[in-house]
Amino acid sequence: MGEAERAAGRVASVMQEARVFPPSAEFSRRARIGSLEEYRRLCAAAAADPEAFWDERARELPWIRPYTRVLDWQPPDVRWFVDGRINVSAVCLDRHVAAGRGGKTALVWVGEPAGERRTLSYAELHAEVCRFAAGLRALGVRPGQVVSIYMPMTPELVVAMLACARIGAVHSVIFGGFSSEAIADRNHDANAVAVITADGGWRRGAQLNLKKNVDQALASPHHPPTTVKHVVVLRRTGQPVEMVAGRDVWWHDLVAGQPADLPPEPMDSEDPLFILYTSGSTGKPKGIKHTTAGYILWAQTTAEWVFDLRDDDLFWCTADCGWITGHSYVTYGPLAAGASVLIYEGAPNAPHEGRFWEIVEQERPTIFYTAPTAIRSFMKWGMQHITGRDLSSLRLLGTVGEGINPEAWMWYHDVIGARRCPIVDTWWQTETGGIMMSPLPGCTPTKPGSCTLPLPGVSPQIVDAAGDPVEPGEGGWLVMTRPWPGMLRGVWGDDERFRETYWSKVPGKYLAGDNARQDADGYYWIMGRIDDVLNVAGHRLSTIEIESALVSHPSVAEAAAVGRPHDVKGEAVAVFVTLRSGEPGEALQDTLRRHVRQQIGALAVPDDIHFAAALPKTRSGKIMRRLLRDIAAGRETVGDTTTLEDYTVLANLRGHDE
Ligand code: PRX
Description:
The protein is built from 20 helices and 30 strands. Among the domains are: 120-276, 3-Layer(aba) Sandwich (Rossmann fold), CATH 3.40.50.980; 533-655, GMP Synthetase, Chain A, domain 3. It has an eight-stranded mixed β-sheet, sandwiched between helices. It has a seven-stranded mixed β-sheet with strand order 5-4-17-16-18-19-20, with helices on both faces. A four-stranded antiparallel β-sheet has the order 21-22-24-25. Bound molecules: adenosine-5'-monophosphate-propyl ester.
């Protein structure tokens, strides 16, 4: 039985057990979409005339110059709101200030060190963004140029993103957990002209060496001379850093004397807003390109529909802005919607494992959006961190990043939501720009483990390898048949890869890369990836990227990385290596772990390293990952092994494991 069949079996058993939870009456009364009839009406309207549907919504945006056409769709190329001019920072800030909401809280920030807290109103955030944008412009950053951002979760990270948007620079946020080599790769691929960073950041009581990583990236011997001319450094922790004369400038010096009001650059609807690198099925992460008008409309609309944002909400999405979730539901979606956003710098278990619930008690967020892996950690850490905490401010809970196992769903519902908060299990991807499938809290009955139904305007289909729709209830590839405003517009600098990855296997349709299945109610169940992408603690990792990192070590001849089930992380990374030199053993395992950390970052460090005499291969030389997955998981090796090149390899691997 292959991985897909096993997944299907798991899903089938979950589906049989699935309980249905009705939508909350309180939400139905007040939510934007308050009944299934209303939801169906919107879906039908969006399907019947997508241009009229999106035109009606896009008109609400503050256009600098109106668009002349809603949609130009020549698969896979799409243009939304053709010829329009708009600025995303003005959508998120100026329009709220102009409407008299400048005094409303935009950001509430809580730092990891005890007692650190700041708030910024919309007017204050606007002023900070203008000053920093003027500073970037003064450095010579021009529209269309790429600026990398490698920062801790501070208000300045949000300011930096919006400041880039204000002057038309394209930001590329690099998660603070990535290594200097990963920064160098991304800077190089995007031809970044500047990097915005900080001296450091706090993580579990330790200081991250962000500036040092940037310095190393800019001096990387593995890349041509860097295109980066400027490094802006926020003073966050106060740790000593080296400033390079002529290249590095402190954030506070850059903004000193800059105006608190800077007119936004009028950007074309299809000008790039940001690039975000994500792992695919090849070694090199790809820069997913999102553009201006369609993205912001999608981020705002989905935030309003799914989270039912109201004026008195405080929205807490726990993602870091280094990931798409932080882009769309920390920065762009909620701010475009005029919501108040809570951000927290540190780890959920620092200084103690009840940190999140302490923050809920103190800051009283109303909406809480996190990853299933975090929920499984909370379950493991125990009730003593939760009992007695006042979580009564919460009214809606969400999850993202991977499927949520029904047990974790029930725990979230019972313990954190006190059985009164709806849960929205949101399925989407870096590529989709925003949420695609999710329950709506005012109308969708939920089933633990299912992301339920598509949002209006989203057109999923499940197809077989020939691209034909599968029979109801059968598993297959998840595709989208119609364009949506928030969809990716390309892979930065690599049109071929864009076409090949997303549009070639099922021509004319967007291939999401996930297996899925619909149940008798039409609900979608996501069953895992169809490619070699792992989902480790909600982070997307490519097995090939990990393998490339390993074989770049002189001791390693060949490497194969696979996922294996893990209680908390969902998947853990197991690698099998054959050696060129060196002795198998703990010392070499440590060395290889350090090496992967250096090449990619801590998030990719393998959990298990198996040394093998050879890797099992088919006669055509392909590594038999299915076998390795079974071995890594400690499962009986099942299925057809007749094409295995050398049976003794399998015996050796098993022997090694036992
Ligand atoms: O496999 C799906 C899984 O995460 C992938 C997208 O990863 P990334 O681009 O890093 O974006 C994560 C945050 C949006 C998807 O292809 N995934 C994401 N959400 C869910 C999910 N799988 C099941 N259920 C979900 N709710």
